[in-house]
Amino acid sequence: MIAVLAEKPSVARELAALLGATVKKEGYLEGNGYAVTWALGHLVALGLPEDYGIKGFQKESLPIIPSPFLLTPRKGSGKERLLPDKGILKQLVVIGELFTKCDSIIVATDAGREGELIFRYIYEYLNCRKPFERLWVSSLTEKALNNGLANLLAGSDFDNLYLAARARSRADWLVGINASQALSIAAGSGVYSLGRVQTPTLGLICKRYDEHEKFIPEKYWQLQLQHTKSFIDFKSVSVLAWDDKAQAEDALKSIQRKGHAVVTSVESETMEDPAPLLFDLTGLQKEANRKFGFTASETLEIAQGLYEKKFITYPRTGSKYITQDLWPELPGLIRGMESDAALGKLLSKVKFGRLNKHIVNEAKVTDHHGLLVTEKVPSALSVKEGTIYHMIALRLLEAVSESCVREVTDISLQVLHYDFKLKSSKVLEPGWRGIQEEFTDAEASTDTIPEVKADDQISITGISLLEKQTRTPELYIEASLLSAMEHVMVDTDDPKLKQAIKHAGLGTPATRAGIIEALLGRDYIERKGKALLPTPKGASVYSLVADKKISSATMTAEWELALAGIEEGELDSDDFQHKIESYARDVTLELLQVQIKTEGVPQLLCPRCNEHHLLITEKVVKCPEGDCGWLQFRKVCGVLLSHEEIVNLIKNKQTSVLKGMKSKSGKSFTAKLVLNEQSEVTFAFEK
């Protein structure tokens, strides 16, 4: 029997149908010599500190450097966060039994780094030694799956991909766990969350917000002339910008008296605007955010859904190119769009005999090629699904179209000793821009200008003073933040390093949306319209670590470069492990020495264990020692306990009378909170 492991039940059902495994069992389908099961995402993950016997946040336990790393079934959430999820355990038992019975395994998890890690962690956790082959496809259409099943790849071909995924997983654990605990211990109250990619990304947002808030716009003035020649009206603008309005007004008066300008030069050239490449995930997310306001995670979720419905290829791609063997399929994919009402109208603009082949580049396709539609054309999609699908389809049409050709004319004028300029851009061949008829101001024809030549005199029919001001640095929106994460500004004078990490960044196309959502979920940043701003909490956290190693975007980009090297087989994963362990030690030591002002936050011993200082956060008061586990929510029946009342409760064993509390039925009541001998908090009502 051959066991097949998919990432999700929906994909498992598709594979089972193709393989003839039609008999439904608990957690899998079987038949025709196959048993097809699924993983429900990450069933197995790296263990938490508690799995190594480390309870609570203890300075003496840091840094935590596991050797070896433990793998455990994925934990629950909330109160169950330290216990294995029951559904996960149940499915792991199913997979374990199938792996024991089978002769070999087909790995059909998503064809990417995370998909590989999902399988390998399960395989390692179950201590399995059965041989396995890899199903590696870029779409889930029947044709693609059948072709993939007929051409399974050796599992060992993906060892480096797994090593890179494992190295990333361990690096995030080492830095995230140690840095977060170290800063929380240094603070003495509250729990802080730091991360290898999360913290530098927070830094980008905080620094841009700071630049935006501190920016003082400066006014300047330019002159605009109106002209008429051969019955054609047009305008020119001064090259010089004055920061003194009076000087600009003096120039205006002088020019008015002169009354005409002289043409000093006329330069025309034909320019080609190359067709865009295909979308990779980050490009799709940026465009969807700019044009439609979609968040990065929203775009990824929609694209993943379209992929699972077989309408587009694998979305988590970092490439904008395709391989030569895919090129012959493109005309068929494009012609298939005819059944889509909106797309079908555009096919007449596609020159099938002269498709642009610039998207073919074997060297720039790694795990997956750029985003494509498949031969399966949807007949009904939600509005948002339709938006993303059409973006991908339209980009394909644009990518295979010819360049947009423009005639650009620059004219220079002079009045007295003042220089003026005007520019005209006329579209000669719309090329790819004709697909959607989208032309920016610079690319479309501007106001018509007459035929002029050097030394011609041009009359001035009007003059105006334009008041302008320097532009405030724009706050990040998700599109611009994704660009900043993708292309980190390298803070180094080493030219070799600059070149080496030119294409590295913070995170990967598949992880950047999750980083942004994590910052939002932890209340470190917030959305205001489309803009991303740091919250007071996020700004406070970043201020503590702004000059620390954990915040270095350059160093994080170097780690990303090293991980890419492991994936390519150019770097040793064990060497990377040693370096990241050393880095985690340095970061931990650095953060433990952070001096944090905690005015107003009382230092109180835990009433239960009398050993550890209580952590006082916005929501809870708790003992950091896991074995003790004493906890009191700060909001009691709708009333928030102040620091003063927390001190009263712990030191005096009771609070003052608290008014305005409400019962479950909504009735108001007044009472004290009392700490009894068992360190339990109860109500004491006035008699």
TrEMBL record:
Q: Tell me which Gene3D superfamilies the record gives.
A: 3.40.50.140, Topoisomerase I, domain 2, Topoisomerase I, domain 3, Topoisomerase I, domain 4
Q: Which UniProt keywords apply?
A: DNA-binding, Isomerase, Topoisomerase
Gene Ontology CC, one term: cytoplasmic replication fork
Report the residue ranges that make up the Topo IA-type catalytic domain in this protein. 158-588
Q: Name one GO molecular function term.
A: DNA binding
Per the database record, which ranges form the Toprim domain? 1-141
* One of the protein's GO biological processes: DNA topological change
Q: What is its EC number?
A: 5.6.2.1
- What PROSITE patterns has UniProt attached to this entry? TOPO_IA_2, TOPRIM
The reactions it catalyses are: ATP-independent breakage of single-stranded DNA, followed by passage and rejoining
Query: Which is one Pfam family of this protein?
Result: Toprim_Crpt
- CDD domains, A to Z: TOP1Ac (cd00186), TOPRIM_TopoIA_TopoIII (cd03362)
Among SMART domains, the record links this protein to:
TOP1Ac, TOP1Bc, TOPRIM
Database matches in InterPro entries? Topo_IA, Topo_IA_2, Topo_IA_cen, Topo_IA_cen_sub1, Topo_IA_cen_sub2, Topo_IA_cen_sub3, Topo_IA_core_domain, Topo_IA_DNA-bd_dom
Q: Which family does it belong to?
A: Belongs to the type IA topoisomerase family.
Write down the PANTHER family for this protein, in alphabetical order: DNA TOPOISOMERASE 3-ALPHA, PROKARYOTIC DNA TOPOISOMERASE
- Please identify the protein, giving its name as recorded: DNA topoisomerase
